[in-house]
Amino acid sequence: MRYVLWLFFIVLCTVLQSTINNYLPIYLSPDILLMLVTCIAFFFNYYTALISIIIISYFASVFSAGSIWFYLFSYTLVFYILVFVKRIFDRSRFIATATIATISTILYPFVVLLLSILSKHTILFETAIFTALKQIPANIICAYLLFKYLTLINLRLTHKNSLLQFRG
Amino acid sequence: MVLILVISFQLAYSDLFSKGPFVYPSKVIYQSGTLLMSGIAEISYGIKKLWQNYIALVNVKKENIELKKQVGILNLELEQLKDIEIKYHNILNILNLPLPYNNLSYVTAIVIGKDISSIFRTVSVNKGTADGIKKGDGVISMSGVVGRVVKVSPHASQVLLLTDTNSFIEGVDKQTRIRGIINGTGFNRLNFLYVLSDAPINNGDTIVTGGQDGIFPEGINIGKVVSISNKSPGWLFKDVVVQPDANIDRLYYVMILTGEKQ
Hints:
Helix content of chain A: over 70%
Order of helices and strands of chain B: HHHEEEEEEEEEEEE
Largest sheet of chain B: 6 strands, antiparallel, barrel
CATH topology of the largest domain in chain B: Thrombin, subunit H
CATH architecture of the largest domain in chain B: Beta Barrel
Distance between the termini of chain A: 21 Å
Oligomer: heterodimer
């Protein structure tokens, strides 16, 4: 049930991303999927996180012109760097939300640039960097909300697990 | 870990070659996602219409007087244009040339979503193969060229916009008949490529479709030239920047060209 809900949440995020991009200008539209990757780098164990990234990349490629490789490589690279950054901020996880969101936003265009050289997609660096920079404020708010939401779920699950362990 | 790898490769294989077990699920996911997006679009456009029809009535009287004036002027222009059209048809008849657009059929669609990544420029529309849309069909708006269809599902399609860096369309300068390729920049500007450095192109010139790419008929507006510069002395081509006529960032209705009428 937990995994079905998680899958539904990813689909919902993808559809939501596509819809809000249609109605909002870039600077008001957060990169929800990138923020989701930022969050899973913090809340999930290594393998669950990697599976999540594959699923997110798959759904992203369905609703985008980018191929699954593009999203898979870019999100995985961002994920690995964030896991590294996490070690620095490990003790103040929530205070670091804004910092992490900013880092992942700034980091993303560079990863995209690297991928555009390696893949068939032609992406101008200016496009990547400017759109990412414009998205920073919206991304910080989105990351904060996602962190809050995932913390709540995590707390409930931990509470449920501890109750189960206690009972049985 | 092995399972993850297998799934990952299967997904990539399906995505790259449109084969394998994940092709059908991706279509189902896209279809169901766009259904949700269609619902949101319907509600949002409904609210927008309500706003325009009822609340915005305040300015209608003022607008009405202004519009009546414009109708008078436009009626005069229409008469002149009708006269020109008759002459144009007569010339085409004399030269034995076919009439443009007469045989074109199109499907009107509503934009329901944008690309999930702001790096790519695509939009999702609410019409698909069930409405006769094929991959590669041209998409236009009332103002000009919008892009072309790159992905289709039964009731939704994905359109690669003119402004995407992977978009290449044949363009012709309406005034000087100079041909080139229109390429997206990722922003609301286009590059008009392969214009020779000594070509007599001017700011404000209108760029239209050339009609030889098999996607768009000849003469549909693409945009206007906004800047021309020579890279350096001796360089073969000019840097020509074009502003698209279609409002790419605020698309609502689009027309998908589905081919010739039977």
